[in-house]
Every structure is written in structure tokens, then in C-alpha cells.
Write a structure and sequence with these properties.
This protein has one helix and 14 strands. The longest helix is centred in the N-terminal third of the chain and has 17 residues. The strands form five sheets. A four-stranded antiparallel sheet has the order 5-6-7-8, with no helix packed on it. Strands 9-10-11-12 form a four-stranded antiparallel sheet, with no helix packed on it. The chain is mainly β.
């Protein structure tokens, strides 16, 4: 967890431990002084972020739970973008958008089983777990294209969670098939 400084550089939160600069340049196993746990980290930033997350976890145990949409059906993969909360309802094959206290279907495709939505330039990418595809949709919620294979020609699999980077790329996980 980093916050911007006045000089435009990043600095660690003041209550996190300082780690030697040698740890910054190599992938290493390290013991985090603040939390006493071992992690494989790629940089000091990763280690400090993990410690900050673990330090804040107990705070959530005392937080008040607020239900904003009692009719949501297994909401997952939330995204806050442009003043709206978007989330997937896998069993209802839809993405819901919520703004100003009102929810509405933003996008829907039978057989998709969406699990997440990520912002991409000019619209969004929806991960369809049941449909085993990624769907590019416009900012208005219209289907633009369906992606069935990766860059190497392999099938998408069971797309699950997704996140966008600052350069317009979208990354997703493939959890595999759930067998009962």
C-alpha cells in the first residue's frame, strides 16, 4: 500500500517496516518484520502490501455490514467505474449496474455465467465462466465481440476473476471445472 508524496514519488505508509534495498531487486523468500510471516516476494512493495493487508484484516471483523441490494443473486466480481457499481450474477447470466440507489441489468447473455467485469478502453470485458469465453462489451452494455481463444489459439477455459491494468490490458483467472 503506497500513497503519493508531494514530490510525485511513492512512499510506504509510515507504520510499515523498511526493508533493505537488496530485497528490491530479486525474488526472495523473506520474513516480514511487522507480521512475522514468510512470503515469496518480488519487491519490497509486495512485502509491505502483504503486511499492510494482514494488519488491516482484524479491522474488518468489527465493521458493520450494509446490504445495498437485497435482491442480488450471488453477486461477485465487483467493479466501481464512472460512478457506478457493476457486478456479475452468474446464475442469472447478467451484469448489473447500480447507481444512485437503483440497480438495473447492464448486460445479459444466456449461457454466459459471468463471474467478473473489468474496464477496458472503450468498454468492458466480461469473464463468462459457463460459456468459457470473454466478451467485450461497449460502455452502453452492447456486445462487441466474443473471444473464444487466447493469443496462442488455446480455448479460454473457465474464466473467473478479472482485473485491468493501467495500459488497457485485462488479466483473468481460469479456475477449472467444478465437479461435485
Amino acid at each position: 500500500m503506497f500513497i503519493p508524496s508531494d514530490a510525485g514519488r511513492s512512499r510506504p505508509l509510515p507504520w510499515l517496516p523498511r526493508i533493505s534495498s537488496g530485497a528490491r531487486s530479486r525474488l526472495s523468500t523473506s520474513r516480514a518484520p511487522a507480521c512475522g510471516m514468510r512470503f515469496i516476494v518480488g519487491s519490497t512493495r509486495h512485502l509491505q502490501t502483504i503486511c499492510a493487508f494482514l494488519a488491516l484484516m482484524p479491522l474488518g471483523l468489527h465493521a458493520e455490514t450494509v446490504t445495498i441490494e437485497p435482491n442480488a443473486h450471488y453477486p461477485e466480481g465487483p467493479l466501481w467505474h464512472g460512478g457506478r457499481l457493476y457486478y456479475a450474477e452468474m446464475s442469472r447470466d447478467r451484469i448489473v449496474a447500480r447507481k444512485d440507489g437503483k440497480s438495473s441489468t447492464f448486460w445479459q447473455q444466456p449461457g454466459c455465467g459471468p463471474t467478473s467485469i473489468a474496464y477496458a478502453p472503450g468498454g468492458f470485458v466480461v469473464a463468462c465462466h459457463y460459456g468459457r469465453v470473454l466478451v467485450r462489451i461497449s460502455a452502453e452494455g452492447k456486445t462487441r465481440s466474443i473471444i473464444t481463444k487466447d493469443a496462442r489459439g488455446r480455448p479460454i477455459g473457465n474464466a473467473n476473476d478479472s482485473i485491468a491494468d493501467a495500459k488497457g490490458g485485462v488479466y483473468f483467472t481460469s479456475s477449472g471445472v467444478f465437479i461435485a
